[in-house]
Amino acid sequence: MTSVLSTTPTTRSMGRPIPLFVIAGVLLLRTGLLFAVGGLALRTSGARAGEVMSFVNLWIVPVDLISIYVVWWLLRRSGRSLGDLTGRFQGRDVAWGLLVLVIGMIALQGGGFLGNLIAFGGPPPVDNSLPAPPVWLGLWSLLLIPITIAVAEELVYRGFGQKGLQSAIGRWPAMLVVAAFFGLQHAALSMTSGEMMLSRVIGTFIAGVAFGIMAMRFRTLWPLIIGHWLLDVLGLGLPMLMWSLS
Question: What is the value of pTM for the model shown?
Answer without folding.
Answer: 0.90
